[in-house]
Every structure is written in structure tokens, then in C-alpha cells.
Design brief:
Blueprint: H1 5-12, H2 21-31, H3 62-74, H4 93-96, H5 105-113, H6 123-137, H7 167-177, H8 181-191, E1 196-198, E2 218-220, H9 231-238, H10 255-260, H11 266-273, H12 275-290, E3 308-318, E4 321-331, E5 341-346, E6 352-356, E7 374-385, E8 392-397, E9 400-402, E10 409-410, E11 415-418, E12 422-425, E13 430-438, E14 445-453, E15 459-466, E16 479-486, E17 493-498, E18 501-506, E19 514-515
Parallel strand pairs: 3-11, 12-19
Antiparallel strand pairs: 1-2, 3-4, 4-7, 5-6, 5-8, 8-9, 8-10, 11-13, 12-13, 13-16, 14-15, 14-17, 17-18
Helix pairs in contact: 3-5, 3-6, 8-12, 9-11, 11-12
Bound molecules: protoporphyrin IX containing FE and 2-acetamido-2-deoxy-beta-D-glucopyranose (8 copies).
Residues 342, 344, 354, 396 line the site of one 2-acetamido-2-deoxy-beta-D-glucopyranose (NAG).
Length: 518
Amino acid sequence: MFIPLIFYFFATATAWVYPNPQLEALDRLRWDQTGFNALGISIFVGPCNFFFVDTNATGRSDAADWIRTAYHDMATHNANDGTGGLDASIRFGEEQVRSENVGDGFNNTLSILGIGASRYVSLADTIAVGAIMAFENCGGPEIPFRGGRVDADGPNTPGVPEPQDSLDSHIAAFARQGFTQTEMISLVACGHSFGGVQHALFPDVVPDLNDPTNRQSVQHFDSTFTNFDNKVASEYIAGTTQNPLVVGLNDTKNSDKRIFGSDGNATMLSFANSPQLFATTCSSLIARMVDTVPNGVQLTEVVTPLSVKPANLQLILNGDNMVITADVRFWNMTFDANRVILMLWDDHAGGTHNTTLAARRAGTSSAINDRYSALWYGLDNFAFDGLAGIKTMRFTVNGELEDQDGLGFVVDDSVIFSASSCLFSPHPLAGRLDVAVRNGVNPSRIFLENVKIDSSGHPVITETDIPPPAQPIAANAVYSIWSHNVTDNNLYRIVAEVDGVNISTWANPAGVFSSCPS
Ligand code: HEM
Ligand SMILES: *[C@@H]1O[C@H](CO)[C@@H](O)[C@H](O)[C@H]1NC(C)=O
Ligand SMILES: *[C@@H]1O[C@H](CO)[C@@H](O)[C@H](O)[C@H]1NC(C)=O
Ligand SMILES: *[C@@H]1O[C@H](CO)[C@@H](O)[C@H](O)[C@H]1NC(C)=O
Ligand SMILES: *[C@@H]1O[C@H](CO)[C@@H](O)[C@H](O)[C@H]1NC(C)=O
Ligand SMILES: *[C@@H]1O[C@H](CO)[C@@H](O)[C@H](O)[C@H]1NC(C)=O
Ligand SMILES: *[C@@H]1O[C@H](CO)[C@@H](O)[C@H](O)[C@H]1NC(C)=O
Ligand SMILES: *[C@@H]1O[C@H](CO)[C@@H](O)[C@H](O)[C@H]1NC(C)=O
Ligand SMILES: *[C@@H]1O[C@H](CO)[C@@H](O)[C@H](O)[C@H]1NC(C)=O
């Protein structure tokens, strides 16, 4: 019997708990695919025949590039010594010049997926989510996604199978990667449901097709090469396949033929007979493929969409006021003009307050090709008593409480950005970034984090310490100020180590500071 994946998925996974900056970022990457707060990655696989390098051409697609990239990055894994795996080592030129990694598909992929990399999301995580998005948005099954991959510092040992290698060598290569022979057959079929082989890269496999729109003469693995379905299996079994690695000109390079037939066609026959079996098999194998990481890398739990997700929360101390800006996503919610959503919060003095969230951020945010909907509500620069501060948020939706099963949504206001930050000079830029520290909180260290995405898409984090003030500078009755001069308008996160825990919050970019009093 076919158990719908969505049911299975949500029945077995528990949601993450807010606050958690890493899971907030991973949830955004994986679920906020379109609409408000979306990173915009999914538009590159919607429609699924889209190929951003040459939008007029047929034959190639971003979806196929993303899936092949994830496999080639993972395929260096050695299950015996724990080295290699999905770690974005494919970004290094030293890996790309190898014959096992021919083509421009890897750089195409990284130049898009790098959009998703950030302080809490490695380039390797984006490669994993890219493959998952390609499957999910293009007719494939839903695939559980975990984050926490670590980008490699250099190239890995070679290890991607090539078409001219023997069947024994392919079986050995997949065993080294952690997959059995049956899993090898399945994984190749899953991947080769997309894309094909280029003439220029494999002239003895694919002839020049002389097709003015299929400019790179790509001969496809099945007749529906921009979509996931079981045609790669059904056409193979029916003997009608045009798969160039089955019926290619050079039989030595017909690796799919050898692999698919290696168990007497049993696995391919089962896929040809059951689209559902193929989909569930690919869901679990693609998940294992992207979760194949070097030893020592600790992946997160499966990232499920938080049903009520605060995001982009920023607190600013302004005199005796605190000013909050936040977005709140309500999953699986559709538009209703009459709905009332309140944010309730507890302060440090035992008081409870509430305000209405603006529905003006409402707008459908559909993830995975309209499979899900979500609505965003928000608060912009809402001011409240900054001395009393804020400890916990809760929400009510038409009177119904949303409080994370009693935990509430904890907000830490112990170290926040201060509106007393100011500009000495706009050109050349010179400003003072003020951090407000709640009295009684004793950070062992406060530093600014800045993240730059390098040319390969890999995020590089720099830290700049803010020294403690020589003598306390009071901001108001309950906060004092730590200051740091900046000469750029980079976006920083303020991080404070307090009692062995790092608390972090956004600093405003220096570009919006007011002038320093002279
Ligand atoms: C023995 C194992 C494998 C061999 C020998 C092999 C070989 C190839 C070759 C020669 C190409 C053509 C590349 C080009 O011309 O651009 C290709 C494309 C592709 N492969 Fe594989 N492959 C293997 C396994 C896999 C696996 C496990 C996956 C993913 C799960 C995968 C996904 C893809 C995709 C999506 C493409 C299409 C790329 C495009 O159209 O741009 N392959 N493969
Ligand atoms: C794409 O095709 C359109 C219409 O055929 C043409 O006007 C345009 O110049 C083409 N663009 C590229 C990049 O080839
Ligand atoms: C991809 O980018 C890397 C790093 O910039 C570069 O070394 C490599 O030559 C590029 N590969 C291709 C095929 O263009
Ligand atoms: C077929 O591929 C093999 C292995 O790469 C190669 O040695 C041989 O020259 C190729 N044959 C032709 C006709 O290109
Ligand atoms: C597997 O199926 C293909 C395509 O129908 C066929 O050519 C081949 O002989 C079969 N192999 C075996 C071992 O049955
Ligand atoms: C989404 O909301 C609808 C209507 O409230 C409900 O019937 C359905 O079970 C929800 N789906 C999920 C996945 O939570
Ligand atoms: C919200 O605050 C008002 C006072 O400002 C209070 O009357 C009302 O009961 C509060 N609502 C909730 C749900 O706590
Ligand atoms: C920051 O810059 C101002 C203006 O140039 C200067 O007066 C002040 O001493 C600087 N502070 C630090 C800590 O360098
Ligand atoms: C806090 O951040 C610093 C700098 O990134 C790191 O070295 C330290 O391990 C972190 N501490 C905790 C408890 O995560």
C-alpha cells in the first residue's frame, strides 16, 4: 500500500523550538520558497525546464544541474574512513578539472545556490536543499531535509564513477559511498529521471543532434527529462529508451545499461510497474545521499515547518522605549480579512501586554509549488516600555492561544542594538555602533559577526570584538552601553557570550544611523 509521504513525514517528525537561529534560517531556506521572506531560489526550478544560463535553449535545466551537483559532491565519500561527502568541496577548481566532473553544471549550480548560504546555512546545505527542491518542485516526492553540513576547506579524494568504468568498479564505488548494489541501481535511476548527456562532453556517446534550440545537443535519459517520473524505468523495460548511457554509440560507456541490468532488471522492473515505489524509494535514497557527510559533522533534526514561526525579530533600545520589528509566519493558513491575531508578551516585572499584529504583511507564501500555504503577519517599529522589556511572546489567532505547547516564544532582550548608534561622517563612512546590555547581565565577550559569501558561494564569517567600556555608560535605568566604531555599513549580528551561551541579534546597518551629536 502507498502511504502518502506527507502523512508519514509529519507523523514522525517533531517541530523545532523557537528561538533557534540556525533552524529559523534552515526553515526559511527549505519552506519559505515563494512570497514574503523567500530567498528566491525556487524560481530557478519553476518552471522545471528553466535553464538560467540560456533561457531560450532547450535540453538543459537548472533542476538537472542541481541534482547532478549534489551527487558529484557526495560521491567522494569514503564510508570506511569517514572522509568526503556532501561538503561543497565540488566548488574547488581542483575537483572540477577532474574528468569525473566534466561540464559547467557545478558552477551554474553554485552561482545560484550561493544565494541561500548565510551565517547558519553552509553552501553544502544549499546543495542539499537544491537537489531536494529540484525533485519536489518537479513532480517528485517530498524529501526530508536536515541542515548542519560543514563546507570543506579543500578538495576531496576523487571518487565519482565514470561511464567507462566496469560494473564491478561501480558496485565498489557505491559501496564505498555507503550504498548497496540495489541502492546503486535505484539512485542512478532517480538521478537519471532528469537531464541527459551532452555531445561536446561525450562525443562518442551522443552525436551532434543539429537541433538549433537544443544547443548543447543533450540526449536525454528519458522522454520527460525536466520532470520526475518513472519513465526512466518504464522506457528502459519497454525497450524504447533513448537513454544515451543505455543505447549510446560507445558500448563501453553504456554504464546505465550495465547497472540497470545488473540484477536481471528486477529493480528497474519494479519501478516500471510502480510509480509510487519509485517515488518512495527515491525520497529515502536522495535523503540519504544528501545526508552523507564527513565523520564528525552533526546534522540537525529533520527541518519541519514551525506552525507559528517568528522570524527576523529585531529589538532596538530607544531611550526608555524598546522598539520591536518582527514577522510571524502562520503555516497552513489562508487569507481571512476578519481574522484577529494578537501578540501577547510578558515583561521582566511580571506584567503581560498585547498588541494586534498587522495583517498587511499577509500574502500567500506557498512552498513547494503551491502544495502548502502560509500567511505572514508582522509588527514594524512597535514601541513599548523598554525598562520592563520583554521575556516571552505568545500569540492568539481569533482568541486561540499559540504558545509552543506552553513554552512560549522566548525573546532575549539582554543584549540589543541601541538607537544611540550614530554617524560621525557619511563620507568616508565613520560611525559608532552602540550595544545596550541589560544591567545584571555580564557578558564575557561581545563581538560583531559579519558574513561574506565568497566567489564560490561559501559563507565566510569574521568576528570583531567590542571591548568592554572603561567605565559603565548608562543608557537608561536598566541598560548600559558598549560601543564600537565602524567604518563600513555592513550588516552585523551582535553576539554576546553570557554564562557560556551565545545570544545573537541583528544590528542595524550603519547606513541608517542618525548623525552623532557634535
Ligand atoms: C555510475 C554512476 C553514474 C554515472 C557513470 C553517471 C554518468 C553521467 C553522465 C556521463 C552524465 C552526462 C553529463 C553531461 O553530459 O553533462 C550524467 C548526467 C547526469 N547525472 Fe549521472 N551518472 C551516475 C550516477 C548518477 C546519480 C547517482 C545521480 C543522482 C542521484 C546522477 C544524476 C545525473 C543528472 C541529474 C544528470 C543530468 C545533468 C544535465 O542534464 O545537465 N547521476 N551522468
Ligand atoms: C531569445 O529568443 C527571443 C525570441 O525568439 C529573442 O528575441 C532573444 O534575443 C533571444 N535571446 C537570447 C539570449 O538568445
Ligand atoms: C568553476 O569555478 C571555479 C572557481 O571559481 C574555477 O576554478 C573553475 O575553473 C570553474 N569551472 C568551470 C568548468 O568553469
Ligand atoms: C569508447 O570508450 C572507450 C573508453 O573511454 C575508449 O577507449 C574508446 O576509444 C571509445 N571508442 C570510440 C569509438 O570512441
Ligand atoms: C533488461 O531489459 C532490457 C530492456 O528490455 C533488455 O534489453 C535486457 O536484455 C534485459 N536484461 C536482462 C538480464 O533481462
Ligand atoms: C491545514 O489546515 C486545514 C484546515 O484548517 C486542515 O484541515 C489540515 O489538516 C491542515 N493540514 C496540515 C498539514 O496541517
Ligand atoms: C489585551 O490588552 C488589553 C488592554 O490593553 C486587555 O483589555 C485585553 O484583555 C488584553 N487581551 C488579551 C487577550 O490578553
Ligand atoms: C570613535 O570615533 C570617534 C570620532 O572619530 C572618536 O572620538 C572616538 O574616540 C572613537 N572611539 C573609539 C573607541 O575608538
Ligand atoms: C560562541 O561563539 C564563539 C565564536 O564564534 C565560539 O567560539 C563559541 O564556541 C560559541 N559558544 C557557544 C557556547 O556556542
